[in-house]
Amino acid sequence: MSDQHEHKGYYTGDIHNQYIEEHYDPKNRGVIWRTFWILLVITIFEVAIAFTSLSKELLMYIFIVLTIVKAYFIVAFFMHLKHERLSFGYTIILPFLLIVYLIAMCIAEGSYIHLWGGK
Amino acid sequence: MSAEATVAQPTSKKIWGGGTSPYGVSWGKMYMWFFLVSDAFTFSSLLVAYGTLRHRYAEVWPKASDVFTHFPFYDGHIQLAYVGLMTFILIMSSVTMVLAVDAGHRRDNKGVAWWLGLTIIGGLMFVGSQAWEWYHFIKGTEKGAIVYKTSENEIWRFTENSQEPGIHNTTVKGLVSPDHKLVTDPVTIAKIEAVGRPLQGATLKENEYGHPLFADFFFFITGFHGFHVFSGVVINVIIWLNVLNGVYRRRGHYEQVEKVGLYWHFVDLVWVFVFTFFYLV
Questions:
Q1: Å from B190 to nearest chain A CA?
Q2: What is the rounded distance in angstroms from the CA atom of residue B87 to the CA atom of residue A71?
Q3: Exposure pattern of A59-92 as b/e (b: 16+ CB <10 Å)?
Q4: ipTM score of the complex?
Q5: Which residues of A touch B111 (CB under 8 A)?
Q6: CA–CA separation, A83 vs A23, rounded Å?
Q7: B167-201 pLDDT, tens per residue?
Q8: A55-72, pLDDT tens digit by residue?
Q9: What does pTM read for this prediction?
């Protein structure tokens, strides 16, 4: 069924009938499998180093960094955000700075109550 | 199809000048993204609440790697193996989903049907794995724990595996205190057993693994995620039936597959975070 000529775009066909430019790269499948191997290797690596004698704190930072790396590959290549317009990417990603703030606030609060010993 | 089109292909160079999508995406895809952002905020709130209370009860928080040690068709205990397998299944189903989207770009109806079908199987496997994990978590271990009433209810757990990770050792008979210290002295054990009450498995009120909030967050976070996977499978089946009926071949594009693909990858993305923060650290 796959035809040879490239699809430059399509009309959505609903009441808005928006014209959508399509940017399809035939080399895409190579990128998909490369992303899969990266995610798999990182996951195996995470499970493997969990059993080493590295300090708990160091392990935690390694896991957090690797999780963000994995999230980047999923969002950028599986969800294709890297190939959308930059303005769209910022609209999606920037609100999560609020989550970073929330994490910093709440973890500090949790640790504080812990040290203070209150309920 | 373009003969019926009422909106001409935009030629204006002004991105924000009107008459065109400034983001260069269809409204449907944009709303799927916005929904995913809001959904990510919900998951973030759950995980942040979990992190906060885990820090509050830091020294009595159970080690997840000591709790989830079961593996199908294997009698012993292996840490992290099963959840690692579940992660692999979900990553794999994300790959088949992105291959379905790729086939859609090539207008390959059979390819979309094949890859989307595999994605549905992967999703069902993951939901099944989660049900299996819940079953073992709720049922508990063979020996369970002792609830020892002091100022608070302390959970003293019988050792199933030694303190060496990954090694199953039943020769050490002992109780693990709430702050993870091993007690092997028979007199102390007998005293705790005499005063305390036996407890096996987990409910929302108490669990043999330690602090009650541990089970609460486990049920809520993995439950909320599992429900997302289940919804994703249902949506994928609907779209898959449409593909088989040639709906998108007639429509001329497979944008609907892209949209459910975004949702499916998001479910995978959330699992990456749950895996790290609930199981690894």
A1: 31
A2: 13
A3: beebbeebbeebbebbbbbbbbbeebeeebbebb
A4: 0.89
A5: 1-2
A6: 8
A7: 444 455 688 888 888 888 888 888 888 888 888 89
A8: 889 999 999 999 999 999
A9: 0.88
